[in-house]
Specification:
- The protein is α+β, with helices and mostly antiparallel strands and 230 residues long.
- The protein folds into two domains: 2-77 and 164-229, no CATH class; 89-160, no CATH class.
- 15% of the residues lie in helices and 34% in strands.
- The strands form six sheets. A five-stranded mixed sheet has the order 5-1-2-18-19, covered by helices on one side. A four-stranded mixed sheet has the order 6-20-16-17.
- A hairpin with a 1-residue loop joins strand 18 (214-216) and strand 19.
- The two termini are 17 Å apart.
């Protein structure tokens, strides 16, 4: 289990480099990015429970040994799919913020593209990562620069997600389809909480923190992540 403080350099490093780690998928890793009061965006911290110390610039990891014959299965619930009618968007490098991109092979200002086409930035960019849809959520569009909550990667083809009209209904549908029985841990993105008006609503069998980012091997956004022991 891994906990990363929001906006820390170590979090950016993990987000950019984890997908390139050899044998990443052979070592089940789950966790979250720590947050803070949205009305008071102060420093976020990761705590070492063995000492009580807190860190704004370090990750905290807990290594768990499972009983013989048991395995940790990490999975996600993602309500988004890419819109196949939208053009393909690519980026020149791995980055958490960009000015330029290519849309169907033509270089454009990404901020201008979003504005000109009236794109709803509550809908993330979506890409197929080895058969799994991964979201890249828009953090900001300001002064010609677009910021992301997780990095885009060079060589990956992105599209904006299809519009989701009813978050809660779609979550319930995807949860039913996930088939999870007894998840031992789960966390859900604060963007889902905000955009989907999830306050006071339940998503059984999942219960856990609402986070500033989710870790299921790599950093994710607008996703519910969970672990089962089987």
């Amino acid at each position: 289990m891994l906990i990363l403080p929001y906006s820390a350099a170590v979090t950016e490093k993990y987000a950019k480099e984890a997908p390139d780690v050899e044998e990443l998928l052979l070592h089940p890793t789950i966790g979250w990015v720590t947050g803070c009061d949205l009305n008071d965006m102060s420093d976020t911290k990761a705590y070492d429970g063995t000492t009580g110390k807190s860190y704004t610039d370090r990750a905290v990891a807990m290594y768990l040994k499972l009983p013989e014959g048991k395995n940790a299965i990490i999975n996600i619930v993602n309500i988004f799919e890419d819109d196949k009618d939208d053009p393909v968007i690519t980026f020149p490098e791995n980055a958490l913020d960009v000015t330029k991109c290519k849309v169907d092979g033509k270089e454009v200002s990404f901020a201008e593209y979003i504005g000109t086409h009236g794109i709803d930035t509550q809908m993330p960019l979506v890409a197929d990562y080895n058969g799994v849809y991964i979201n890249i959520s828009i953090k900001s569009v300001d002064a010609g620069r677009v910021g992301f909550y997780a990095p885009v990667f060079k060589g990956i083809e992105y599209r904006f997600a299809k519009r989701v009209n009813n978050y809660v209904e779609e979550f319930n549908n995807r949860i039913d389809a996930s088939g999870a029985q007894k998840p031992v841990f789960s966390c859900n993105c604060i963007l889902n909480y905000l955009y989907g008006n999830l306050e006071g609503k339940k998503t059984p069998p999942y219960a856990g923190p609402v986070t500033f980012g989710e870790i299921a091997y790599q950093l994710l956004n607008q996703t519910l992540t969970y672990c089962e022991i089987v």
